[in-house]
Write a structure and sequence with these properties.
Elements lengths: L8 E5 L3 H9 L16 H12 L7 E6 L9 E2 L2 E2 L12 E6 L1 H11 L20 E4 L4 E4 H5 L7 E3 L6 H18 L3 H20 L4 E5 L3 H11 L8 H9 L6 H10 L10 H12 L8 H10 L2 H21 L10 H12 L8 H13 L8 H16 L21 H12 L13 H8 L4 E3 L9 H7 L5 E3 L5 H9 L6 H6 L4 H8 L3 H25 L16
């Protein structure tokens, strides 16, 4: 092997299952930390064992071999403690398992005895039952704890014996002794012994195809991993960056989790990758593309970079929550709005008195759907616009009017904008006439606060079905009160004119509903909401430069 592997090379190996597992146990093949933890269910593990017993293929593995990259790897695989990674690359290079973690963990945990107890690194393993044996009577793999609950005794073969014929024979002698007290016949014992031998033979003869990818091209390795995992849970950039920056005193993903836990309640599930995008913005890197190598260098040279990014995100969340009503991350029209604001806050380029004009930027980029494609050019332009606003505050008016989509889908930025405006209204009332704090309700109930009140009746027309999916069928109420509101609208007792008005309902709409014309009710209500929404757009766009009303809070009801 050359000292500097730059081209992709691959080797095809076909080792025995036992030798493969021993290589993993000894640390010759390691599981990198960007892999997801062990998540297989009991049923999946049993199915894997049955496949080997039945001589069925269980798929190949992919191993990445490199002499350049020493990645952070799990110190446990299943219940086994794995020796630390050596500092100097072995003759063949460091080897990392890119595909097959769940299968290897299952088989290593069940088939090999532990050389050393696992550490506490992966607490999840404490909840996994690794005690599975083979029931020679029923010819099935069983959890010992379950079989012990039965009143009858069955002949069980520990799976740790299947690689060693002598151990199989020893256990069969013990089963024969047990048989004397269980009235098992010689015929039974001979049959079970044959089954034990057959099971041991299948596992000893099992061979696992391995494709070894030999390259020092990190991007190629990452791209390969993402492709082979595209049908499962793909690796994201944060996993790989965390692996490449990991040290005994720094775990990027753990630190991100700690910072995220300090965010307001509705913002504690932000993706790890968003933190990295802010780090890129602070470092002058392209925020629109994955680029692990340069980012790893920046983080290695400046560990404070992640802390600055986290603080910038916290400040951006604070202003978006209090000034724009974005009390939950699901309401954010575009993630790049948070990212760019965080970059400026982390760079200390924003002062408190400038927040009104920056909120105008948020409103403009939302209405005009600037980040719909999130291209490099668009993102760079808006970052420069923000910086200009921060230094010489001057907004930009716009005339583009974006209609509400026919389908009310929270995934659409335009729908989130409507929700932000709606929840900012001070005139919201429930069916009893009590004031509704829209933002508090949204924080508590999330998207369920925008309740779909009516369902499609039998024989509904295509038009009615479409209207039922639209904004005309959405009501901002406590979701537990939807039945009460629906019945009062349809039957009574009548709601006050003030309550109906706050829900965009007039007397004609209510009359149509009570006459059984749900289609007319929804159509007219959707039109009323659209008119209000268009008016709001027009008002917002008039104050684009921020100069005519310097203290205007653009998210207060007009």
């Amino acid at each position: 092997m050359s000292d500097n592997l730059t081209a992709l090379a691959s080797e095809n190996l076909n080792p025995s299952l036992r030798s493969l597992l021993e290589d993993v146990q000894r640390g010759h093949i390691r599981v990198p930390r960007f892999q997801r933890p062990f998540v297989w269910s009991d049923a999946q593990r049993l199915e894997l064992l049955e496949s080997i017993r039945d001589n069925m293929p269980i798929g190949s593995l992919l191993v990445w071999r490199t002499i350049k990259f020493k990645l952070a790897a799990f110190s446990n695989v299943g219940p086994h403690a794995i020796p630390p990674t050596v500092d100097v690359a072995p003759a063949v290079g460091w080897q990392y398992l890119l595909d097959g973690h769940q299968r290897v963990s299952t088989l290593l945990g069940l088939l090999l005895a532990s050389v050393a107890p696992a550490s506490t690194e992966q607490a999840i393993d404490d909840e996994i039952d690794w005690d599975i044996q083979y029931d020679l009577m029923d010819e099935e793999f069983v959890f010992t704890r379950k079989i012990q609950k039965k009143r009858t005794i069955h002949p069980l073969l520990p799976l740790s014996a299947v690689f060693d014929g002598r151990m199989v024979n020893r256990h069969m002698r013990e089963i024969r002794k047990l048989g004397e007290s269980q009235n098992w016949t010689d015929e039974n014992l001979d049959e079970w012994e044959a089954r034990a031998d057959q099971l041991s033979y299948r596992f000893q003869q099992c061979r696992i195809p391995i494709v070894v990818m030999v390259t020092d091209d990190l991007g190629l390795a990452a791209k390969t991993f993402q492709r082979i995992n595209s049908l499962g849970t793909p690796m994201d950039e944060a996993h790989l960056v965390a692996a490449l920056t990991w040290t005994a005193d720094f775990d990027l993903r753990e630190r991100i989790a700690e910072m995220r836990d300090m965010f307001p309640e509705g913002w504690r599930r932000l993706d790890d990758g968003l933190f990295l995008q802010v780090c890129k913005g602070l470092s002058g890197l392209d925020m629109t593309k994955a680029g692990q190598t340069e980012l790893v260098k920046k983080l290695a040279a400046n560990r404070d970079l992640l802390e600055r990014a986290g603080e910038g995100i916290r400040k951006a969340i604070d202003v978006l929550s209090h000034r724009a009503g974005v009390v939950h991350q699901e309401l954010l029209p575009y993630s790049f709005q948070l990212i760019l604001l965080a970059v400026l806050y982390a760079s200390k380029e924003i002062k408190a008195e400038q927040e009104t004009i920056l909120m105008n930027w948020f409103w403009r980029t939302s209405w005009t759907e600037v980040f719909s494609t999130a291209s490099f050019r668009e993102v760079r332009l808006e970052l420069e616009t923000l910086r200009t606003l921060a230094s010489t505050p001057k907004g930009a008016s716009w005339k583009e009017v974006q209609p509400l989509p026919e389908r009310f889908d929270f995934r659409l930025a335009r729908v989130r904008l409507f929700v932000l405006r709606l929840t900012a209204m001070q005139t919201l009332l429930d069916e009893a006439g009590n004031h509704i704090d829209g933002r508090e309700l949204l924080l508590r109930a999330s998207r369920d606060a925008l309740t779909r009140l009516f369902v499609a009746p039998r024989g509904a027309s295509p038009r009615l079905k479409k209207l039922l999916q639209g904004v005309g069928n959405r009501f901002l109420i406590d979701p537990q009160r939807d039945t009460v509101l629906r019945e009062r609208l349809k039957i009574g007792p009548d709601l006050s004119a003030e309550v109906l008005s706050s829900m965009f309902i007039d007397a004609d709409m209510l009359a149509a509903l009570r006459a059984g014309d749900l289609e007319a009710f929804l159509s007219r209500r959707a039109a009323a909401i659209a008119l209000w929404d268009e008016k709001e757009q027009s008002i917002e766009s008039q104050f684009g430069d921020g100069s005519s009303q310097p203290t205007l809070n653009l998210f207060e009801p007009t």
